Amino acid sequence: MIVSFRERLIVARQPFSRAEGIPNYRPGLGFADAVVITEITMSKKVIYTAITHASGGRDGAARSSDGQLDVKLARPGASDEGTNPEQLFAAGWSACFISSMEVAARARNITLPADRAVDAEVDLYLDDGAYFLRARLDVSLPGMDLAAAQALVAAGHEICPYSKATRGNVDVTVRLVEPRS
Known about the structure:
Blueprint: E1 2-5, E2 8-12, E3 16-17, E4 22-23, E5 25-26, E6 30-31, E7 34-37, E8 52-55, E9 61-64, E10 70-72, H1 85-107, E11 117-127, E12 130-140, H2 146-159, H3 161-166, E13 171-177
Parallel strand pairs: 12-13
Antiparallel strand pairs: 1-2, 1-13, 2-7, 3-4, 5-6, 8-9, 9-10, 11-12
């Protein structure tokens, strides 16, 4: 079980403690049987800038400057055709997370399975008039050794720009799961 908690990545050997909502947390003892991963640092260099234009908010449209993205937007759950920002965010995060694990795997000379996948769920909440997000990333690395898979998921979460951007701002759970059939 891997979870980002208070800007630290926790890799737990046991399931969540339901009472505390965090892995293996025991008051006064901290994270039992867990490993805290430190952040990987890299030199800064702009490698790409996405430029988009949105109009009409959640009932509008968005397009990229290069024309590769051109979508109609709709509110979550609306019967209108179109996607919503949470779906776009989940899709981008999933793809980026896979690429981040690929970077970590190359650095360790590990081959990732061809059918690797990430299923992302991004929840939009409203609480006392304030909106916020929660997310779950279910990572599937079929056929991999468990320890190697856990290490790559942990490294991917540290490397991924989406994970970094949400750290400390969004409640995120990252789980290594069996592949969906």
